[in-house]
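Holo prediction — NAI.
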Amino acid sequence: MAYNLLKGKKGIIFGALDEKSIAWRTALRCHEEGAQLVLTNAPVALRMGEINKLAEAVNAPVIGADVTNMDDLKNLFEGAMKHFDGKIDFVLHSVGMSLNVRKNKPYTEIDYGFNQKTLDISAMSLHRVLRTAWDLDALSDWGSVVALTYIAAQRVFPDYNEMADAKALLEGVARNFGYHYGVKKKVRINTISQSPTQTTAGSGVKGFDGFISYAEKMSPLGNASADQCADYCVTLFSDLTKMVTMQNLFHDGGFSFTGVTQAVIEQMGK
Ligand code: NAI
């Protein structure tokens, strides 16, 4: 059901790779709620061509940008403002990549060169995006920026590897830039800490299937889906959450505050 919550709003969506991507689901929901969109992803992801299907469905242009490249980001924000003929009301940062996970390097043996790239792509990219918007004065007053994170930033999930540190840094950037952008322009910046979700990035984590069913058993409401995450993003982009900023918001069916569940106790007793 659509409520026109984003009627007249204009947003940039980073990170729609295929139809499972959280960004893909969010773009569809934002479109349903009346938003105008610009889609972006890394040039290498655009070559897959999938994003063109989404672009058609939500009637949005695609502007490529590697989130670690400031020239690309400037070109993206300038292109988006030109397309919208005005400023941008919301941004979804749905980007993550771990080189050490890809190369099967355990946490205790990471390659530091890979690690720097991981932190740049998955965390400092939020700073780069915000800095670009800040320098170009590209966001409307009371604009809203959301980045996606995972609870491994607070608790240890051994196979999440260096991404746990990347997510902790990402949440720090959201909080600190949230202060400055709040004071300057009333722009709000939050992270959503999402349940494990079957996507390309998610499935890259070792033992992901076990991980997902454990979280399902440990959450009173079960795991939150990508579509439910998209709904939550819509509320944060809407005017109904104007005073929410600098927060890490758990969207995980209650997992983060559950010590143990009956289902897990029964499983352990087997
Ligand atoms: P996904 O694989 O569909 O999306 C990740 C996106 O990052 C891809 O579109 C990829 O092209 C993009 N990307 C990678 N390097 C880039 C670069 N240099 N420049 C621009 N874009 C780049 O997977 P998913 O799950 O939708 O991931 C979205 C976000 O949600 C990520 O931040 C992820 O860590 C986070 N998240 C995912 C969870 C899961 O279990 N799937 C759980 C909690 C958070």
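READOUT: The chain has one domain: 10-268.
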